């Protein structure tokens, strides 16, 4: 049903002017002109069809109708004020500033982030990506994800995820040019990432073909570009197991060799020592540890 309410701005002007018994004082409180208060009150009187004030030169006095109306309105305004104060005192969303490597964010963190948001709706996660050293970051963060372990002054780290690296490529690429043994990589294009310049040479040495020369090499400045190139069949990339697991499971990528695997690469959540009492940062750290734990693994990572 439509409410029979007068103009609310006019109602507010009347309530203040009636309490203060002055249009000028009401104008100061509401930060408007004396004329604006006079017009608002006149509008309310016309809407009601009643005189609320007696104008006496520079004074205004409430009429009987005005006094009765003010008495009825005051509790309503007090209730609105109390409700507003209670609402303002409610805790707002807690902002959590997280910095993580771009490829890790795209391929591991974002696909799982909704689980954290569902469990912690009061936390607003703001993620930025970077591969810079923690001490080179230009702004403070509540939690930083980096490889490790590293001893960053002023930070404490918790391991939550480990991965290994081995060659990956698209199934279509293997149909064109099979890979039966490491020597066969000489017929392929190897995909490199600028931030991981030694990863292919380390794997080739571990596979016993340190002197292998590929047919071609492509280099990218971001690792997620390297993985996308592998998905598109441009060549063979060194894939981090945890970041390509879903692609392998879905058949978008394959692992032509299961051995050798480069040693563990571990991810750590680093929280500033000055921020150890940040409940949102601790909750995010605990969530990372829990969501990264392999199914059936009841052990607690340190």
Automatic annotation (TrEMBL):
Keywords: DNA-binding, Transcription, Transcription regulation. The keyword DNA-binding applies. Pfam families: HTH_1, LysR_substrate. Residues 6-63 form the HTH lysR-type domain. The keyword DNA-binding applies. It comes from the Bacteria. Belongs to the LysR transcriptional regulatory family. This is Transcriptional regulator GcvA. It comes from Chitinimonas viridis.
């Amino acid at each position: 049903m439509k409410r029979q309410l007068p103009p609310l701005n006019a109602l507010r002007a009347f309530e203040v002017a009636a309490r203060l018994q002055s249009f000028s004082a009401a104008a100061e409180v509401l930060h408007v002109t004396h004329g604006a208060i006079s017009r608002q009150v006149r509008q309310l009187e016309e809407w009601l069809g009643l005189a609320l004030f007696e104008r006496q030169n520079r004074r205004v006095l409430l009429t009987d109708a005005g006094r009765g109306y003010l008495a009825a309105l005051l509790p309503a305004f007090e209730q609105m004020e109390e409700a507003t104060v209670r609402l303002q005192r409610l805790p707002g969303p807690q902002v959590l500033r997280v910095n993580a490597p771009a490829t890790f964010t795209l391929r591991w963190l974002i696909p799982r982030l909704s689980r954290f948001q569902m469990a912690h709706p009061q936390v607003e996660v703001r993620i930025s990506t970077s591969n810079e050293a923690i001490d080179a970051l230009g702004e403070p963060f509540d939690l930083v994800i980096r490889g490790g372990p590293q001893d960053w002054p002023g930070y404490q780290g918790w391991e939550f995820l480990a991965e290994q690296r081995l060659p990956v490529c698209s199934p279509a690429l293997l149909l064109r040019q099979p890979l039966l043994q490491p020597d066969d990589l000489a017929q392929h294009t190897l995909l490199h990432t600028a931030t991981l310049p030694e990863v292919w040479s380390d794997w080739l040495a571990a596979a016993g073909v340190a002197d292998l020369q590929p047919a071609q090499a492509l280099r990218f400045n971001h690792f997620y570009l390297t993985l996308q190139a592998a998905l598109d069949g441009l060549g063979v990339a060194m894939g981090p197991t945890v970041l390509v697991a879903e692609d392998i499971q879905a058949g978008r990528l394959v692992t032509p060799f299961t051995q050798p695997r480069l040693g563990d690469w571990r991810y750590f959540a680093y929280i500033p020592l000055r921020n150890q009492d940040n409940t949102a940062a601790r909750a995010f750290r605990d969530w990372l540890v829990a969501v990264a734990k392999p199914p059936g693994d009841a052990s607690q990572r340190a």
